[in-house]
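Task card 7
Instruction: Convert sequence to structure tokens.
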Amino acid sequence: MPEVMRHLAARLRRFVGNRRSATRHEVRLACRVSLKERKGSANGATPRRAALLEGHTRDVSETGLGLSMPAIRIGEHYLTGEGSVLLIELDLPEGAQVRMQAVAVRYERVEEDETRFGYLIGVQITQMSEEHRALLLAYLKGRKA
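Output:
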């Protein structure tokens, strides 16, 4: 049932209009996503290298991203779960990388082809260094020209 509601909401958004304040640029950039470890989850153990999920962007703005991902979870943890903070690394053209923290605000299952499916995850950027924000903004400004 929740999948049906998300699908209907996405279709309604197309007909009623998009009320996002930041301009979204349709662009495909490679990205890697991991989950920020929650405090107390390591139980005193040595921190492990975080598992990554590789995907790409469908659109990018100053405040959020549309991510195309092959799965909705890493291990047993959902990317869209309540309290989940995503660590995202984007590969900009010419070798620059931008890192940020974000939270998922919506997702929907999408068909990639007749035999495969993935997920479109809408995320809101919650934290980014000034240096990385400047790189992202310069990239987006260059796309407007």
